[in-house]
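Let's sit down with a protein and look at its sequence and fold side by side. Go ahead whenever you are ready, and we will take it from there.
>
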Amino acid sequence: PHSMAQASLPMEDDMTAAAADHSHRYSAAAQSSLDNESADDDDDDPTPSSSRAALKPDDRRLAHTVAEQKRRDDIKHGYEELVKLIPSCQPPANGGQKLSKAIILQRSIDYMAHMKKFRQTQEQELVSLRNE
């Protein structure tokens, strides 16, 4: 049991490091987004409220379209990162069918629950070994 548990620990460390890296990369963007939202009345329009009135309707529509495309790209990138990180989301060798977003999220939740349980088991085993 010790060798299997020992071999799995680096994967957990990799997951933790990858999650920390992902969190770090997006924390600045998220904070910037929150700053913009708190400064503006309209969450869908990234343009500051003082210059919003000066924009023509076509310019506002374009700004909204660009902001929406960025949001979609960020979500897509997030799903791509989950697929890379979660072992059960890895594509099969034969190509297979692409997983739905719902399945990716559910498998991510399942994997995190599994890793949490695994960690608790490892901690219990460590306490047990220290008490011997």
Observations:
- The mean pLDDT is 75.
- The first helix runs from residue 2 to 39.
